[in-house]
Specification:
Blueprint: H1 2-13, E1 21-22, H2 23-40, E2 44-51, H3 54-61, H4 63-80, E3 86-91, E4 94-100, H5 104-120, E5 135-142, H6 149-165, E6 171-173
Parallel strand pairs: 1-3, 5-6
Antiparallel strand pairs: 2-4, 2-5, 3-4
Length: about 180
């Protein structure tokens, strides 16, 4: 019964496709990370990421290919994350990355590294198409850009929107 209970709990906080945390877990993790940053007087970076033109790729090539792309991108992030970092699937092709004790320069460096590696990913199913997988990311950092969780999310989301507006395949930092 204990094993069943643990498995059930894990299913409620993880994404079935990728095995990473889901939105339900993200909300609690954000509160914990923010409170820790405030108490420790340390920075907290939040990155919001979308896969560029993902809907078109899904519509053209199908959800099976879309799922492969999502898993490959998650693997790129997973290889770069530190022990206390968190990646969560916010929904569809949207992800949030929480980087405790990380300033803007370090967060931007992390995001750029991931962006470049994703851009180099190759998928056999995309070889005869006009699509190349890229991601857009928006970064916000407490206390530099925001003084509340709500502000942190909003400024990261606004930076993500700006990255998409400026042509995608970019990392944009909140100001």
């Amino acid at each position: 019964i204990v094993q069943w209970g643990e498995k059930a709990r894990k299913r409620t906080i993880t994404d079935d496709l990728t095995g990473i945390y889901n939105r339900r877990f993200l909300d609690d993790a954000m509160i914990t990370a923010f409170n820790n940053a405030v108490n420790m007087k340390s920075p907290l970076a939040v990155i919001m990421m979308d896969i560029d033109l993902f809907r078109q790729i899904n519509d053209l090539l199908g959800h099976k290919i879309g799922d492969q792309i999502i898993k490959a991108i998650v693997n790129v992030y997973a290889e770069k994350l530190k022990e206390d970092d968190i990646i969560a699937r916010f929904g569809g092709d949207e992800f949030t990355i929480i980087l405790p004790d990380t300033d803007m320069n370090s967060a931007k460096s992390f995001a750029e590294t991931v962006r470049k590696e994703v851009e180099l990913l190759e998928f056999e199913s995309l070889e005869n198409t006009e699509y190349h997988i890229t991601i857009s990311q928006g970064i916000s950092v407490y206390p530099k850009n925001a003084h509340s969780i709500k502000e942190l999310k909003e400024t990261a989301d606004a930076a993500l929107y700006k990255a998409k507006e400026e042509g995608r395949n970019k990392v944009v930092c909140s100001v």
